[in-house]
C-alpha cells in the first residue's frame, strides 16, 4: 500500500462507527457466546464486551444471560442474510475466479455485498497484503484472522446492506490507494452498474477512485433486475466476473468499453 494509504487511520474497536454492529455480527455468527469468549474474539476487556451486550439487549436484539449472550432473532430473517443464500453456488464460483486476480501482497478493497463477501473464503493461502472494507460482515469475518492488515472505513450504518456509508467513509476512502476494488451491484445493463439507494453511491465511488482496477462481481440474475440509481458506466470497469454469458446488448457494451469478461462455472 502507498505511503498515503499507510497514513490513513484504521479504526480501533473503541472508536469504530458501527462498533455495536460488529459485536452483533459476532453474536449472530455464534448464536450463543460467553462474555469471556466474546471479549477474547473482539480483543477487549470482559467489562467492555458486557457493556456493549447490554446496549444490544436494551435495543431488543439479543438476550443477555448470566455470563453470556444469545441471539433473539435468527440472522436469516435479515434482508442481507436472505440475499446471501440466493444463487449461493454461483456467488461462490464467481468469488473463486475473482480471487485468482489477487496477489500475495496486494492491497485490495472489498465492497459491501453478498457476492464480494465470498472472496474471503478464496483469498490466497499465503495472503499478507491489506484489505479495505466498509462491510460489517467482512469486518466481523476477518477479526479472528492474522497475517495481513485490515482497514475499516467508518460511517453510518445502512442495515439492509450491512455497510457503513456517508461522509466519514468517503473521507477515509479518499486517503487510500489499493490495487483492486471488488465491486458488487444490485443490477447491471448495457448502460452501466446500478445500486438500490443513492446513499450507497458516494462510498462506492470513493473506493472506485482509490483503486488501480475495478472488478465487478455479479451473478446472472443481476442482468434481469432493475434498480434506480446508476453508479457508473461500464467504461469505468476493468473486469467483470459472472457465472453466465451476459445478454447480447450487455456483451456488446462490454466489448466497446474494453471490459475483460471472465465466466465462472458453479461447481
Account of the 3D structure:
The protein is of the alpha/beta class and 267 residues long. Helices cover 35% and strands 23% of the residues. The chain has eleven helices and 15 strands. β7 (156-158) and β8 form a beta hairpin. The model is unreliable at 1-17 (pLDDT under 50).
Please outline the helices and strands.
Layout: H1 3-6, H2 19-30, E1 32-34, H3 35-42, H4 46-58, E2 62-65, E3 68-71, H5 79-85, H6 88-99, E4 107-110, H7 114-117, E5 130-133, H8 136-142, E6 149-152, E7 156-158, E8 163-165, H9 167-173, E9 178-183, E10 187-188, E11 192-195, H10 201-210, E12 211-217, E13 229-233, E14 239-242, H11 248-256, E15 260-263
Parallel strand pairs: 4-5, 4-9, 5-6, 9-12, 12-14, 14-15
Antiparallel strand pairs: 1-3, 2-3, 7-8, 10-11, 11-13
In short:
Residues 1-17 have low confidence and may be disordered.
What features would you highlight for this structure?
7-stranded parallel β-sheet, alpha/beta, disordered N terminus, 11 helices, 267 residues, 3-stranded antiparallel β-sheet
Number of DSSP strand runs: 15
Q: Outline, from the CA principal axes?
A: elongated
**Roughly how much helix do the residues carry, as a percent range?**
25-40%
The averaged pLDDT comes out at 86
**Strand order in space, largest sheet:** 6-5-4-9-12-14-15
Describe the largest sheet: 7 strands, parallel
Return residue spans where pLDDT drops below 50 for at least 5 consecutive residues.
1-17
Topology as H/E string?
A: HHEHHEEHHEHEHEEEHEEEHEEEHE
> What is the count of helical runs?
11
Strand content: 15-25%
Amino acid at each position: 500500500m502507498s505511503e498515503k494509504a499507510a497514513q490513513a487511520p484504521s479504526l480501533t474497536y473503541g472508536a469504530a462507527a458501527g462498533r455495536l454492529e460488529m459485536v452483533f455480527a459476532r453474536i449472530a455468527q455464534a448464536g450463543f457466546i460467553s462474555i469471556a469468549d466474546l471479549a477474547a474474539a473482539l480483543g477487549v476487556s470482559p467489562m467492555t464486551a458486557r457493556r456493549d451486550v447490554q446496549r444490544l439487549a436494551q435495543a431488543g436484539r439479543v438476550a443477555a444471560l448470566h455470563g453470556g449472550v444469545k441471539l433473539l432473532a435468527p440472522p436469516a430473517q435479515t434482508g442481507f442474510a436472505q440475499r446471501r443464500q440466493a444463487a449461493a453456488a454461483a456467488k461462490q464460483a464467481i468469488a473463486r475466479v475473482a480471487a485468482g486476480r489477487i496477489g500475495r501482497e496486494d492491497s485490495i478493497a472489498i465492497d459491501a455485498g453478498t457476492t464480494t463477501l465470498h472472496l474471503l473464503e478464496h483469498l490466497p493461502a499465503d495472503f499478507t497484503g491489506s484489505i479495505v472494507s466498509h462491510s460489517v460482515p467482512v469486518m466481523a469475518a476477518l477479526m479472528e484472522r492474522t497475517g495481513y492488515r485490515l482497514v475499516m472505513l467508518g460511517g453510518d450504518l445502512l442495515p439492509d446492506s450491512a455497510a457503513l456509508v456517508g461522509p466519514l467513509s468517503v473521507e477515509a476512502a479518499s486517503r487510500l490507494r489499493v490495487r483492486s476494488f471488488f465491486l458488487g451491484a444490485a443490477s447491471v445493463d448495457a448502460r452501466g452498474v446500478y445500486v438500490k439507494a443513492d446513499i450507497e453511491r458516494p462510498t462506492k465511488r470513493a473506493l472506485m477512485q482509490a483503486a488501480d482496477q475495478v472488478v465487478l462481481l455479479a451473478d446472472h440474475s443481476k442482468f434481469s433486475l432493475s434498480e434506480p440509481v446508476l453508479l457508473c458506466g461500464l467504461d469505468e470497469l476493468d473486469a467483470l466476473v459472472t457465472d453466465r454469458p451476459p445478454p447480447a446488448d450487455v456483451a456488446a457494451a462490454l466489448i466497446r468499453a474494453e471490459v475483460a469478461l471472465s465466466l465462472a462455472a458453479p461447481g
